[in-house]
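Continuing the batch. This is chain 6 of the set; chains 1 through 5 are on the previous pages. Same settings as before, nothing changed between runs. Recording input and output for traceability.
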Amino acid sequence: MAFEDAQDHRIARISSAIRVIPDFPKPGIMFQDITTLLLDPTAFKDTIDLFVERYKGKNISVVAGIEARGFIFGPPIALAIGAKFVPMRKPNKLPGAVISQEYSLEYGTDKIEMHVGAVQAGERALVIDDLIATGGTLCAAINLLERVEVEVVECACVIELPELKGRDRLGDKPLFVLVSAA
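Output for chain 6:
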């Protein structure tokens, strides 16, 4: 579920900084726009601080950020907890040797990739993205890391769309979310 601490006013500030745009990118979608969160330095800092508070001291050596918005939240978290940042990219965006993981979309498939050698067997990873919807991309990231024997400690997202049941697809992998979108 979403982070619940009635005493923590930061969650309300984060939630109110996220703009919802109806019918974008197509009719029926309620788009959760984090760009307004990024425009509010206090709410953005609160977001990073809450993740850092959760993961500092957890022996995490890798923060794997999913393209593209995981690239916004991942690096400051990685720096603050003393971990490296590993970008998980769309196909053909990384130079050099990569390994990839295919995953299903509503219509077809997609892939995410990371550099060969970016992580080592036995490392402990946090996977971060801005939002979990159906969970397909997070699952692909988990599978990609586990294929090279990295322990995925937890997945973290700013926003969850609970009606799409993405959390269920993660199986036994814990998911930490700050805001649950209604």
